[in-house]
């Protein structure tokens, strides 16, 4: 598998001098923003000189800053939608294990390249400010709703996973200002979820969606965490898509925990009624 420019920057960052390391840190964190910045603006943002930017570009084999930005843009658009290895009836158990793990790793790598951190931050702020969170999903995304309910409750947030069309409509149509509807949808095209978002917003609630960007659901959402869907998601990659939605939930929980002053934001305490006797 070809190593992208962003991956190379991350791999070589620790070998750089402090000034170049600051450039690497900013480019890694905000690659889309860098595409719209002049060299002078990037130098100012990273508190380095223009020659430092040029050395940074040449480290990766580019003659200048514009050539570097061109390849950076290409690294943000993977050459294939998703590196997926089809499991076939003749596969051995070794191949099943290997392909399942590799497909999951590829999905996580794709998420790391595509996800916009600012979207996660905004969604976390909206969720943290909510008086109550209704968590909506349909079909295979229901497991993501249950996972989010479990984790948000452990964080101390008032929330409930709402599954089933009738139950979802009952809550969406009675939504109140201050409440948030958190919606999981792999495609962002599920009619039921779009209608739930519209109904909740009409009652004054805000909507946070974890779904495909540029989708019908995205257009009726207040805070969007765009997770790129894979081609033929329903047929081939439900595990990969579900895994990435789980990871976004973990990111939101951790961001809220940090904002709340948690000393160990990625280690949530168990609620008393979940403690079990151990043998």
UniProtKB/TrEMBL annotation:
One Pfam family it belongs to: SIS
Highest taxon, organism lineage: Bacteria
SUPFAM superfamilies for this protein: Homeodomain-like, SIS domain
Protein name stated in the entry: MurR/RpiR family transcriptional regulator
Domain HTH rpiR-type: 3-79
InterPro entries named in the record: Homeodomain-like_sf, HTH_RpiR, RpiR-like, RpiR-like_SIS, SIS_dom, SIS_dom_sf, WH-like_DNA-bd_sf
Stretches assigned to the SIS domain: 123-262
Keywords: DNA-binding, Transcription, Transcription regulation
